[in-house]
Structures are given as C-alpha cells and as structure tokens.
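User: ok so my PI wants both of these folded by tonight, can you help

Assistant: No problem, let's get them done. Here's the first:
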Amino acid sequence: MKRHETLIPLTHDHHHALAQIRRLRVAANGTDEDRQFWGRQFQRFFHDDTIKHFREEEEIVFPLVVEEPEARDTLDRAMCEHLVIHAAVHSMERELEDGAPRASTLLRVVDLLQGHIRFEEKTVFPLIESLAGEASLASVTLSPRNRAAV
C-alpha cells in the first residue's frame, strides 16, 4: 500500500533517523572519541528533529483515530515507546556529560528507535490510513521539513 501523502514527511523523518542510528551503531563499536562525537551528533538530531516528529504524531496524527477502539492499543504502544526512547536518550546524555557514553547505552538507543520506526511504518501508519479516512488525512498540516542531507 502506498503511504498517504500527508504521512510522507513522517516517513522521510524515519529515513533520516535510520541514517543517524546507523552512524550511532558504528560508533558504539568505536573509540571513546567516536562514541562521544556521534553521541553528541545524535543528541542534536534528537532535540532538533525527533522531538518535533514525536510531537506532530502525538498532537496531530494520532488524534485522528484515538477514538477508534481498534486503534487504542496501537496508539498506547506508540506513545509508550516515545517515552522509553526519551528515557534512553536521557541516559545517553547523562553519560555524555561525563565523557563518552557506553556502547551498551548507544546500542539501546539504536535498538529502541529502530524498532519503533518499524512499528510505525508497518503497523501505526497503515492503521491510521485505514481508519482516519481521506478527508481527515487531507486536512492535516505538518510543519515544513528542513533537513540537511544525511
């Protein structure tokens, strides 16, 4: 099924996030300097892009179907995953304050975000597309994207 045009910017965000986490995964197996450098790069990406992405999903897209009983468990999981990802990134940031984050911390962030992206692309977005209807989806306006090439 082709992604509804309203959700395409969110899918593009996912592609950018996957590029970032690929770098973070490589850094996890590198030196302290690698982990520190790429940890900070990811920290900036998370605060500049991912938090905005989460907010758009939570405040604009998920509300389109929140009243649908068949969407409740899926949206509960997506929202909970957002919180868990925030917590994992916060742990990474605490470690960055002291120098290089541990490899295990970086890999936890990578695994959580990668799994979440798969869940949204394969389950959440198709569910929203099937339940929201064309008129509701067409009425959605997401913020313009200004992504640097990754």
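One down. Here's the second:
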Amino acid sequence: MTIEARKYHLIAEIMQVSDEKILKRFEEILTEYHQQMNDLRGLVKPIRSKKDINQLIQEQGFTGVDREKMNRLIDEIDIEESIEELLAML
C-alpha cells in the first residue's frame, strides 16, 4: 500500500470514530508530531557554499591557544617516553 493510500485509509478509519477521547488522542499525537518537526527544522542549517575560516573562528568564539599555559602543562606532565613509545601504548 502506498503512503497516499495509507493516508486515505486512516482518514476513512478516523471518520468512523465517534469516541471523543480517541479523537482527542489523535489530535494530541498530531500536535506532538508537528512540534517535533518544527523543533528539528530549527536545528537544520543550510551548508555554506563558501568556507571562510575567519567567520568560523568568530562564530565559534575561538581565542587560540595560550602558549604559556600549554608550555606549563607540558612541563607538569613530564613525559619521558618518545612519541613512538606513547603510540605503541595505545
């Protein structure tokens, strides 16, 4: 059965419902569905045709690496093994 046929089938089934609670539940389900779709649409952003690194840096608030802090951390961890040895440990 195609999606269109399924929709018409559901409409026919709903037309036969006379219970107010059941109709209310259908409405709640559809409202929930539409809300979720709207929420998802807000998350989707178009892909830029041109990539601009400066614009990305500004948007993401990147401030760069604090060289003094990085050097201090390097001194504090005091790694004595070579890069090859460290990679082998992985």
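The radius of gyration is 29 Å. Residues 55 and 61 are 10 Å apart (CA to CA). Good luck tonight!
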